[in-house]
């Protein structure tokens, strides 16, 4: 068997031919792997193959800007070259490197090339692929469970930060029970240059991957993890006593749970997933983390929060679910890949749980340095466009969340709660309220969504018991005699009313139960943050004032008249409870320090929004 030398001028057909050659060589060696007498012949074949992968990598590097995934396809060829080089220098590791590294690189280049030329080449093909994965995820609900060799496969990917990686691995070995041989550890060096590869090689686990070039996906092909559940632990995390058993307990509690994520320190996670900690977030705090986690971690299932969106610094997922391909390689810079994965799960009826009874420490805010922050902003916008192209909606403006945690009364009048939610979108605020009622002691929650923008019906279908369109509100008012304990909104009321009649509120008010309430979020466009944004948009010549279509003073008067005579009240939300960036903070400080404006204006500037609480 021989390997032809690659020609110049890379094109699609040539790329496929080169992949076929790689696969042919690898398959041939696979069939003779046990025959040690052929090892020299196999190494000679790999040396020939390296000439092909070297030249392909170089050609793709030069034309990488001609296709979204071409740089990562090239990196896969480069990683095969690197693996062959390691085999030449470490012949005793032939089987390990060939079995894991080379096979994984081949799978990646095949997957990425198919995606480049057969999926993202047209909007129609992208939609078909998205629907294919959604259909597979839906079918999995009724599929028989597979048998797995292990209970859990734990994966630790690392790109430099060796000091933190060592702490992560040490904590895993300390707080994970490997004695029953039902848990496997998989390590992946993803392009590190700081000794990570050598450190991983020193560990006793069998499955080790090592790549020269850092590429996405971070995870490995499903053929390599053999656990019923697949856990990914970031290399800047300290796991804690009981962590794996507690996550396992949550995921095993219901057949429709697809992903479980623990909580961590609030300064290293978004989406209100973290908690405040009584110690400093610094390297060397292992004893403090351990002491805190011993007291904190428990089997308290009341602290399981259902979420519509999760940012997993650590996650436990069903392996059969993950193997269906929800991780999209088009998110080449990583941002919004979690939003994409959450969207797949949300729309196909797989619940996501934030297990707040399990604490792990995350150093994230430390390892995320200033250099990364600047490139991170650019990558955010680029990957935001990728998400919008795939799903047809903007990932930030579609979350159905507000800049303050949704107001819920602390009194529970019934064990069975009925919630009506208007325009939930991705359902972030709705799940906040649902979790709060569960924490208050609700044993059964029935939910109905009213969707104004039909693009979000698939999201609502995965979250609510019943989904109605805007036109159904009047019908609901006529047929629903039981009423609702809580009525909420996934958008500020002016943005809902702007397209519809104020009469919607009349219908909704009549649906409130005797001891229930409707909580209306109202944006204050005179807030200093909005004023600063307004001024900034004028300077950038891109004026898009969200409140320009209505007179807010008049609108507030109408709201007060609408509920005049009813038991209603306003709650103000101040900027002190909201994160603002450094530039906005300086503007607030300067204006207040100057003493300009009367007390009333200063107060208005500080109020970000109001909750209008309407009772029956």
TrEMBL record:
UniProt GO MF annotations: transferase activity
Record-annotated Glycosyltransferase 2-like domain positions: 153-268
Keywords: Transferase
InterPro entries associated with the record: Glyco_trans_2-like (IPR001173), Nucleotide-diphossugar_trans (IPR029044)
Listed transmembrane segments: none
Pfam families: Glycos_transf_2 (PF00535)
Superkingdom to which the source organism belongs: Bacteria
Protein's recorded name: Glycosyltransferase, GT2 family
Organism of this sequence: Selenomonas ruminantium
């Amino acid at each position: 068997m021989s390997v032809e030398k690659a020609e110049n001028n890379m094109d699609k057909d040539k790329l496929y031919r080169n992949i076929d050659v790689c696969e042919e060589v690898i398959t041939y060696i696979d069939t003779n792997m046990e025959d040690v007498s052929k090892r020299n012949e196999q190494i000679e074949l790999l040396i020939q193959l390296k000439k092909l992968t070297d030249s392909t990598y170089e050609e793709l590097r030069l034309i990488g800007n001609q296709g979204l995934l071409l740089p990562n396809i090239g990196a896969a060829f480069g990683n095969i070259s690197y693996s062959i080089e390691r085999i030449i220098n470490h012949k005793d590791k032939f089987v390990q490197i060939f079995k894991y590294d080379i096979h994984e690189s081949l799978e990646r280049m095949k997957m990425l090339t198919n995606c480049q030329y057969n999926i993202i080449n047209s909007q129609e093909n992208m939609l078909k692929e998205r629907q294919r994965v959604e259909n597979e995820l839906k079918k999995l609900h009724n599929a028989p469970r597979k048998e797995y060799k292990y209970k859990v496969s734990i994966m630790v990917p690392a790109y430099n930060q060796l000091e933190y990686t060592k702490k992560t691995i040490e904590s895993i070995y300390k707080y994970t029970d490997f004695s029953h041989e039902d848990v496997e550890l998989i390590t992946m060096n993803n392009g590190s240059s700081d000794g990570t590869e050598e450190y991983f090689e020193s560990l006793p686990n069998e499955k080790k991957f090592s790549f020269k070039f850092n590429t996405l996906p971070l995870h490995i092909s499903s053929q390599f993890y053999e656990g019923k559940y697949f856990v990914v632990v970031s290399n800047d995390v300290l796991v804690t006593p009981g962590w794996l058993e507690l996550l396992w307990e949550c995921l095993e509690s219901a057949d429709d749970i697809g992903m479980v994520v623990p909580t961590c320190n609030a300064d290293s996670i978004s989406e209100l997933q973290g908690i405040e900690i009584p110690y400093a977030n610094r390297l060397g705090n292992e004893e403090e983390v351990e002491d805190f986690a011993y007291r904190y971690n428990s089997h308290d299932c009341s602290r399981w929060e259902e979420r519509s969106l999760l940012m997993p610094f650590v996650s436990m997922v069903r392996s059969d679910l993950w193997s269906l391909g929800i991780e999209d390689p088009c998110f080449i810079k990583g941002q919004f890949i979690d939003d994409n994965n959450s969207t797949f799960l949300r729309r196909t009826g797989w619940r996501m749980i934030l297990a707040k009874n399990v604490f792990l420490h995350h150093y994230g805010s430390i390892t995320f340095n200033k250099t990364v922050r600047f490139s991170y902003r650019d990558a955010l916008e680029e990957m935001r466009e990728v998400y919008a192209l795939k799903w047809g909606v903007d990932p930030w403006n579609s979350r159905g969340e507000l800049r303050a945690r949704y107001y819920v009364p602390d009194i529970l009048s019934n064990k069975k709660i009925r919630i009506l939610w208007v325009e939930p979108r991705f359902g972030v605020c709705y799940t906040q309220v649902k979790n709060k009622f569960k924490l208050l002691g609700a044993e059964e929650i029935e939910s109905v969504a009213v969707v104004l923008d039909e693009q979000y019906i698939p999201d609502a279908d995965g979250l609510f018991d019943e989904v109605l369109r805007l036109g159904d509100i009047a019908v609901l008012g006529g047929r629903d005699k039981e009423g609702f304990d809580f009525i909420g909104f996934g958008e500020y009321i002016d943005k809902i009313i702007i397209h519809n009649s104020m009469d919607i509120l009349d219908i909704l008010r009549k649906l409130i139960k005797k001891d229930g309430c409707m909580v209306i979020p109202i944006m204050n466009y005179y807030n200093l943050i909005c004023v600063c944004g307004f001024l900034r948009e004028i300077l950038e010549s891109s004026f898009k004032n969200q409140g320009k279509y209505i007179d807010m003073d008049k609108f507030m008067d109408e709201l007060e008249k609408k509920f005049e005579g009813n038991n209603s009240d306003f709650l103000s939300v101040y900027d002190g409870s909201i994160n603002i960036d450094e530039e906005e903070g300086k503007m607030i400080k300067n204006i207040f320090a100057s003493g300009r404006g009367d007390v009333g204006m200063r107060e208005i500037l500080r109020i970000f929004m109001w909750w209008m609480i309407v009772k029956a």
